[in-house]
Write a structure and sequence with these properties.
Mean pLDDT: 90
Number of helices: 4
Helix content: over 70%
Shape: globular
Radius of gyration: 13 Å
Distance between the termini: 24 Å
Order of helices and strands: HHHH
Largest sheet: none
Number of domains: 1
Number of strands: 0
Strand content: under 5%
């Protein structure tokens, strides 16, 4: 389930680079908040404090209630960086433990 959440969030964040209706961006912020909150809960259950803090921070950043106004260009950069980070963790999670 965790990998599906990460992949789904990465796809949604990359779709934000396209010219979409404003409602789409609101939906992405809401889904990202939920997704990152679930990832934080999972990281906490795995006793991974670093990931827990990162996912909580991302949930706060993307939450739609008290919007953080970064401007379109900066939000696009944040979306790409976070999407790449999620994809990297997908591949890291699949590699055999050494």
């Amino acid at each position: 389930m965790v990998n599906k959440i990460k992949a789904g969030l990465a796809i949604l964040l990359m779709l934000c680079l396209l010219d979409m209706p404003y409602g789409f961006y609101q939906l992405v912020r809401f889904l990202a908040m939920i997704g990152f909150s679930l990832l934080a809960l999972h990281a906490k259950s795995q006793k991974n404090q670093t990931e827990t803090v990162i996912y909580i921070g991302l949930a706060i950043l993307f939450q739609p209630l008290l919007k953080i106004s970064l401007g379109r260009e900066l939000w696009n950069l944040v979306d790409v960086i976070v999407a790449i980070g999620l994809v990297v963790t997908l591949f890291k999670d699949r590699s055999p433990a050494q």
